[in-house]
């Protein structure tokens, strides 16, 4: 006999949703689910309960004292806590989980999260994890939402899909292993590149928008994204890279590419550099049509933090962008294969590199400048050292050192972060709207 599936309304009458961790992402979910008609209970740290009662007083979800109370009551519990602490927090509350309930997490690397669930949850509990591939201030509509069904029935999955449908994100079903491999390729290396730019600018004591050496659209995108990362919480980026073993390999390869390309530049090896980069271009961008690039001058030029009017463009060696394509080639990664599972920052990073490699003869101009013009040597040397430093910190798995380096650079940019973030948000919104338009146009072409 075939069972009819319950409607969302019926599920909403039966099920309680629980959030453990009401920071940026936990609060986003708690709000969205409760506003869509689900009963939602949540908790943050128990020692902050009294303060949080005031903070969350006007919300449409219910604040409980701790994760035990959430776990006893909820039918689907989502841990939305720092990746570094996931095992410890699941060990605390996991044994209190309601019989038969489903449990998942929002941390950015699924291997350690699923291991924590397997270790600490009673065997009757099911496991379905989530990962929204965007920050808390991005519109959830159309963004990828990874669902990892690890230990659960079709009915359980159906319930979770009904719950998340209010986000209107694009569901991507993956295993934990697939998820971690792809996000190492997309997120971890993207962050490593922009973290290194920020550290290098801070090391030479230079805001990039305050010097005529850096003008033009590509520079705007680099500065805005770097500032966006430094205006966020360090633990988000540390957790994502350090807890994912695949990310270590990627970040180390990126820093090796940076160092090798820089060596070719300062040795004046133009022909070798050109051959190496054209090979990488052919591998990564062979299908790209120059008339159909994600970004154009118009978009890129619009979002500058500089107070000066845009002048003539200054060529740059673009070491950070040359190196990402070189490392994709050496790791056999075609970044377009991961677009279904990509974050806004990754899509912009890809858009900017695509622009540099495929627009007119920009790539050859850039190679020429890299070898012959010494204006950027000091910056490129600092970038090379910064990327090697970040790769070491990540592969040694040192959270404390990560935090120290991150906050040191963050301090340097602090006076500009609010303005930079507002501009970065506009830039990202424009680019995402544009991506949506392009996708819609492509879908319309399919017969
Ligand atoms: N921010 C982002 O862009 C994204 C983040 N993620 C991932 O989602 C997770 C949450 O990130 P985000 O919301 O940004 O981080 P936040 O730091 O804003 O939120 C985590 C919350 O969990 C709280 N917490 C710590 N211990 C406990 C506990 N024992 N019980 C209940 N709550 C606790 C923290 O309190 P306190 O701060 O006082 O320790 C904090 O309020 C992370 O794993 C992150 O990597 C995923 C997608 C996007
Ligand atoms: O887009 C990015 O890379 C971000 O910086 C936001 C972000 C951070 C962590 C995640 O797990 C997912 C998205």
Automatic annotation (TrEMBL):
Species the sequence originates in: Pichia sorbitophila (strain ATCC MYA-4447 / BCRC 22081 / CBS 7064 / NBRC 10061 / NRRL Y-12695) (Hybrid yeast)
Pfam families: NAD_binding_2
Domain Prephenate/arogenate dehydrogenase: from-to ranges: 15-295
InterPro entries attached to this UniProt entry: 6-PGluconate_DH-like_C_sf, 6PGDH_NADP-bd, NAD(P)-bd_dom_sf, Preph/Arog_dehydrog, Prephen_DH, Prephenate_DH_fun
GO terms of molecular function: NAD+ binding; NADP binding; prephenate dehydrogenase (NAD+) activity; prephenate dehydrogenase (NADP+) activity
Alphabetized UniProt keyword annotations: Amino-acid biosynthesis, Aromatic amino acid biosynthesis, NADP, Oxidoreductase, Tyrosine biosynthesis
Reactions that this protein is recorded to catalyse: prephenate + NADP(+) = 3-(4-hydroxyphenyl)pyruvate + CO2 + NADPH
Ranges in a coiled coil: none
Pathway assigned in UniProt: Amino-acid biosynthesis; L-tyrosine biosynthesis; (4-hydroxyphenyl)pyruvate from prephenate (NADP(+) route): step 1/1
Organismal lineage: Eukaryota, Fungi, Dikarya, Ascomycota, Saccharomycotina
Annotated family: Belongs to the prephenate/arogenate dehydrogenase family.
EC number from the UniProt entry: 1.3.1.13
PANTHER family (UniProt xref): PREPHENATE DEHYDROGENASE (PTHR21363), PREPHENATE DEHYDROGENASE [NADP(+)] (PTHR21363:SF0)
Descriptive protein name: Prephenate dehydrogenase [NADP(+)]
């Amino acid at each position: 006999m075939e069972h009819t599936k319950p409607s969302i309304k019926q599920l909403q009458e039966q099920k309680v949703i629980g959030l453990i961790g009401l920071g940026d992402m936990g609060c986003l979910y708690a709000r969205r689910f409760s506003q869509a008609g689900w009963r939602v209970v949540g908790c943050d740290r128990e020692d902050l309960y009294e303060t949080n009662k005031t903070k969350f007083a006007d919300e449409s979800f219910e604040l409980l004292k701790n994760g035990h109370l959430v776990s006893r009551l909820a039918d689907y519990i989502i841990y939305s806590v720092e990746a570094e602490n996931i095992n410890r927090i699941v060990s605390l509350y996991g044994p209190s989980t309601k019989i038969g309930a489903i449990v998942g997490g929002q941390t950015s690397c699924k291997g350690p999260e699923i291991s924590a669930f397997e270790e600490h949850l009673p065997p009757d509990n099911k496991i379905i994890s989530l990962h929204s591939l965007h920050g808390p201030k991005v519109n959830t509509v159309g963004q990828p939402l990874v669902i990892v069904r690890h230990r659960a029935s079709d009915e359980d999955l159906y319930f979770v899909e009904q719950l998340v449908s209010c986000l209107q994100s694009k569901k991507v079903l993956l295993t934990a292993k697939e998820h971690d491999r792809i996000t190492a390729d997309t997120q971890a290396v993207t962050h490593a590149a922009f973290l290194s730019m920020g550290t290098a600018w801070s090391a030479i004591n230079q805001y990039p928008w305050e010097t005529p050496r850096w003008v033009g659209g590509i520079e705007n995108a680099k500065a805005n994204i770097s500032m966006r990362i430094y205006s966020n919480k360090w633990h988000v980026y540390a957790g994502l890279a350090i807890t994912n073993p695949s990310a270590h390999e990627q970040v180390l390869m990126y820093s090796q590419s940076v160092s090798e390309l820089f060596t070719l530049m300062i040795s004046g090896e133009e022909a070798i550099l050109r051959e190496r980069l054209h090979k990488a271009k052919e591998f990564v961008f062979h299908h790209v049509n120059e008339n159909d690039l994600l970004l154009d001058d118009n978009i890129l030029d619009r979002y500058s933090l500089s107070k000066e009017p845009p002048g003539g463009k200054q060529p740059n060696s673009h070491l950070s962008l040359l190196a990402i394509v070189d490392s994709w080639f050496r790791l056999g990664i075609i970044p377009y294969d991961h677009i279904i599972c990509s974050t806004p920052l990754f899509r912009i990073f890809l858009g900017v590199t695509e622009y540099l490699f495929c627009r007119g003869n920009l790539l050859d101009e850039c190679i020429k400048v890299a070898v012959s013009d010494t204006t950027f040597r000091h910056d490129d040397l600092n970038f090379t050292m910064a990327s090697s430093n970040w790769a070491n910190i990540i592969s040694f798995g040192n959270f404390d050192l990560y935090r120290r380096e991150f906050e040191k650079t963050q301090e340097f940019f602090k006076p500009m972060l609010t303005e930079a973030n507002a501009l970065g948000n506009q830039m990202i919104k424009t680019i995402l709207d544009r991506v949506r338009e392009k996708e819609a146009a492509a879908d319309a072409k399919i017969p």
